[in-house]
Amino acid sequence: MAQIDDLPPLREVIATHSLDARKSLGQNFLLDLNLTSRIARAAAPLDDCTILEIGPGPGGLTRALLAAGAKRVIAIEKDTRCLPALSEISSYYDGRLEVIEGDALKIDPVALAGGDKIKIVANLPYNVGTQLLLNWITTEDWPPFWTSLTLMFQKEVGERIVAQPGSKAYGRLAVLAGWRTTGGMLFDLNPKAFTPPPKVTSTVVQLMPREKPFACSRKMLEKVTAAAFGQRRKMLRASLKSLGGPADDLIEAAGLTPTARAEEIDVEGFVRLANCYAER
Ligand code: SAM
């Protein structure tokens, strides 16, 4: 197998530090160095910004990022058992790695970068991955604190993020992602690439911030998408009744057809709907 640095192989790191994977922390470690390097290359260039990694675990992806030339990596890890292994990586790479112990959901990423541009790269824990993504794509400030997101998800979640109207996977997540970002799925990873292997295929998604996002309030967009996709098989005229007031007027003001269903409406359609709803 390929070698990317002179640190011990990941299997040895896991054995030395007794890092048996814990389901409660969404731990599926990626040990295939060809794949960790491929993810790092997908996020390149890495030398002009700070990389924020969530959940480095034993440090496979972290090492790939550093070996590929990352100027600085800040990694947030909740599992304290991983800290000694990560500290060895930090010493080997001359302190280019800074590890923060804690819950990524509770740490303000903007404060960490100290004004530097940030790229987020992570093999996300499946139990908090979607919430973290939503936090990053719905930040108040735009352009956001990050310039790209290169993230691994379960494939089914990746499909829901990049889904287009008319598909089964198209829903609230795709509308929120499409509102603020552009991007797509880069490549899949077989469960066998992980220890322990998850039940499903994973995929790497890359998203870039839209330079000119469609203007609307996040709160309103969330309200209209929740109502529309909450009853996705119903026509808008029925599903949007829960918003109160005459649904047909609202739908027509947004230039949409009351008999259409949520999955037929593109992101711009939902943005218009959110803006008309806000004006009510
Ligand atoms: N990056 C490693 C790799 O690719 O092999 C590990 C990925 S594993 C899927 C997810 C990692 O996220 C684990 O190391 C886990 O301990 C960590 N984690 C889980 N929940 C977290 C949270 N809320 N904040 C920070 N790290 C978390």
Describe this structure in words.
With 280 residues, the protein is α/β, with parallel strands linked by helices. The protein folds into 2 domains: 10-209, Rossmann fold (3-Layer(aba) Sandwich), CATH 3.40.50.150; 218-279, Orthogonal Bundle (Helicase, Ruva Protein, domain 3), CATH 1.10.8. Helices cover 37% and strands 19% of the residues. It has 12 helices and 9 strands. It has helices spanning 10-16, 33-42, 60-67, 83-92, 109-113, 129-137, 155-162, 172-180, 218-230, 236-239, 247-253, 267-279, and strands at 29-30, 50-54, 72-77, 97-101, 118-123, 146-154, 181-189, 194-195, 202-209. The strands form 2 sheets. It has a 7-stranded mixed sheet with strand order 4-3-2-5-6-9-7, with helices on both faces. A two-stranded antiparallel sheet has the order 1-8. Helix 2 (33-42) crosses helix 3. The longest helix has 13 residues, at 218-230. It is elongated. The mean pLDDT is 96. The site of S-adenosylmethionine has 23 residues, from strand 1, helix 3 and strand 3.
